[in-house]
Amino acid sequence: TADITTAGTVTVGTTPAGTTGAVSGGARCQVSGVRWCPRAVTQKKHAVAEVMSWHGAGAEKVLGCKHYAHSCQLLAKCCGKLVPCRRCHAERIPSHAMTSTAAMVCMKCGVEQAPGAKCAACAASMAKYVCSVCDLFDDDPTHDIYHCPFCNLCRRGKGLGVDVFHCMRCNQCMSLTLSETHVCREGSLEDNCPICQESMFTSSSPVRQTPCGHFMHSSCYKDYTKTGYTCPMCSKPPTR
User: Fold this and answer.
1) CA atoms of 51 and 192, how far apart (whole Å)
2) Residue 191: CB atoms within 10 Å
3) Is the predicted pLDDT of residue 61 greater than 50, yes or no?
């Protein structure tokens, strides 16, 4: 068996079902082509020392968090908390998911404003990769990220048709090398992992398919097969 899904999801949470995030007016997203929602620029000023977030040390120290390099904090609409990214929100406030962003705060000048690729106050770049649908910012040159319009999520990879494809039946992005060999199971990746019960669709962890066609996180599969000898879904041997 081989790890197949992903690219690796890089966000938690999506825009509301059936929406694309497209609106009239505003700047167009440089990645997805979708226009930014015209959220009001509040011009509220925060102390730079309070909103600046660093990750790493020495020459590798960069603005951002352990997940992404970027120059802004996100104001979660759900709870009004400032977080570097959605994944940080999930770790710090596990009681609920961050589903939308009310505003962003520039780490360099502290001005609260509508999310965008550049600060409206000091013109500093927030990140090279900016997705208006997911409100995802990343400046790490080692990260390949693309937005899948079918998943309605940003995922790791160079892009659809480049190194990944989207299986419409499985409703998931996978490596191009598996386009003709994976076993299709309609909507199977929209379920939770049978081992840890966490979402596989929005997971940032690689997912593995067993020969019988079921899915689980790759790390869960490795731990499970140390003691288990049958698929937890159909009771068939998980290895050939």
Assistant:
1) 35
2) 16
3) yes
